[in-house]
Amino acid sequence: MDVQTWTYLIVGFTFTLYIGIAIWSKAKSTKEFYVAGGNISPIANGMATAADWMSAASFISMAGLIAFSGYGGSVFLMGWTGGYVLLAFLVAPYLRKYGKFTVPEFIGERFYSKTARLVAVLCLIVVSVTYVIGQMKGVGVAFSRFLETDYNTGLFIGMGIVFFYAVLGGMKGITYTQIAQYVVLIFAYTVPAIFISLELTGNPIPQFGLLGNVSDGTPLLQKLDTVITELGFGQYTNSVMGSKLNMFAYTLSLMIGTAGLPHVIIRFFTVKKVSDARLSAGWALVFIAILYTTAPAVAAMARLKFTKTIQVDKVGEVSGNIEYEKRPEWFKNWEKTGLLKHEDKNGDGRIQYYNDADKSFASVASEYGWKGNEMTKVDKDIMVLANPEIAKLPGWVVALVVAGGLAAALSTAAGLLLAISSSISHDLLKGIFRPEISEKQELNASRIAMVGAILLAGYFGLNPPDFAAGTVAIAFGLAASSIFPVLMMGIFVKRMNREGAIAGMIAGLGVTLLYVFQHKGIMFIPGTSYMGGMEDNWFFGITPNAFGAVGAIVNFVVAFIVSKMAKDPPEEVQNLVEDIRLPQINEN
């Protein structure tokens, strides 16, 4: 069977599985819709959390970004995994002990203010909408290539699937669907990695293959360094993303942003007791580590195979550039999507792929009449999906990767959409504007809000501003600057009052949004680019994607200054903070 037939079979099977689970686990109460009834086992919740956490950015985009950024791309590995440890130790157990449905609900009660709850809802929506854009981009990319649809059609199909199981099942349906999606995505990620590691290094374990030797006895990473430096690119193993300060800020932003993500935090409300929340976090970290330790190997091997299939010999020899008419089949397939583009700038019928920004390489290019890098577009998001094709793996492996990428994107999109709809129905409608509505009315409102959230996500997905991991990094920065500080102060600073919390959230989110808008375009307006940047005006060389760490500092500083100008919280609120932090001896 060809790749497309395999893709229809495997993707069709997984979608049928997700829909079947949604029908079986239909939510019948608000508790089931918001927190899956609160009785999910730690292992099951850990697996669902891992799927919720490992989005299209992790599955599709992260390895692609590392492939082209080299060592500098490790900020994603360090930031996202390190942040999960913060989430497990500093946030999840305490909020589970608090025992409510949503993050804004905790903030509203902890800071005894409907205004604080309203501001928290605003922060949550901004973060979640930004995050979900990346997931929709991943869905569109996967469908556009392998089901031979255009990007928009693929996006609509993905929206329809999420609509069915998220609106019908709520958190209960999403939880059990995410367990199935984790199995699909982790199998899809590791199987091709094993194949390619075996082919390149003879080692079936990708993590070891990354440190092993290729067929000529050269260490894989050394071989990769040689291949790309001969094309004028920087060494793969020495690259950094900007300055060292920027690397630090980027990592910190991703870490504390992770610990402030509402759609991940609410997963810990689905277990029976506080100890289960801690166990869930441990299991989730184990499940996450399987993919995250594999990603660097996938990235390096993908970059090596991609480069060698275009530049068959060493640079400096005209024979080193393959003829365009003889380009590989995978190249032709991805050109159809518009995510890979070639322009024959000098009319020689060959593909010149090199770093035309490297002035020291200009003499080589001039000698052979090269007029610039003819690979005018290589979308980073294609690398994981294209990798099996480049390696000429069996059709079923290629199809499996597609199913995995869709599982990753859909699982996180569902969690984000639930967080958005819950904040609208439970926090805004029930908590602030119409507290007298019945449970049935609230459940219906939740489903209507979910429909609205899906339509909003689809609208932004049709106009994606950046590659998936880049968009998600902005979302983490927004969470870092708005939600994480107020949670930390709410849990550990009993004298923090409502005035300080509200001012901190507004200041942190505001300064981060302002920085992003100024330097990367207006990210929510279709047709505007958010890729460029005005590097000369960057604050101490910190990129917009990394600015969340600065926004968090602004949040903390403003909150503490303002809190000193207002009264201390009521005594019962201070006692609540003490109670949240005390160990729970007898858990039911």
For this entry, give a set of tags.
588 residues; mainly alpha; Sodium/glucose cotransporter; two-stranded antiparallel sheet; 22 helices
Q: What count of structural domains? A: 2
**Mind telling me the CATH class of the largest domain?**
Mainly Alpha
- End-to-end Cα distance, whole Å, is 54 Å
Uncertain parts: 521-536
Biggest sheet details: 2 strands, antiparallel
Percentage of β-strand residues = under 5%
Which architecture of the largest domain per CATH? Answer: Up-down Bundle
**What is the averaged pLDDT score?**
82
What structural class should be given to the helix and strand makeup? mainly alpha
Q: Could you tell me the radius of gyration in angstroms?
A: 24 Å
Quickly describe the structure.
The protein is mainly alpha-helical. 68% of the residues lie in helices and 1% in strands.
Could you characterize the architecture of this molecule?
The chain has 588 residues and is mainly α. The chain contains 22 helices and 2 strands. It has a two-stranded antiparallel ribbon. Helix 4 packs across helix 17, helix 5 (74-98) runs antiparallel to helix 13 (274-310) and helix 6 packs antiparallel against helix 7. The longest helix is centred in the first third of the chain and has 51 residues, at 151-201. The model is unreliable at 521-536 (pLDDT under 50).
Layout of helices and strands, plus pairs?
Blueprint: H1 3-24, H2 30-35, H3 42-53, H4 56-69, H5 74-98, H6 103-110, H7 114-146, H8 151-201, H9 206-209, H10 220-229, H11 244-258, H12 262-265, H13 274-310, H14 329-335, E1 340-342, H15 362-367, E2 375-378, H16 383-390, H17 395-433, H18 439-461, H19 468-492, H20 498-520, H21 548-564, H22 571-581
Antiparallel strand pairs: 1-2
Helix pairs in contact: 1-8, 1-17, 3-8, 3-13, 4-7, 4-13, 4-17, 4-19, 5-11, 5-13, 6-7, 7-8, 7-17, 7-18, 7-19, 7-20, 8-13, 8-17, 8-18, 10-13, 11-19, 11-21, 13-16, 16-17, 17-18, 19-20, 19-21, 20-21
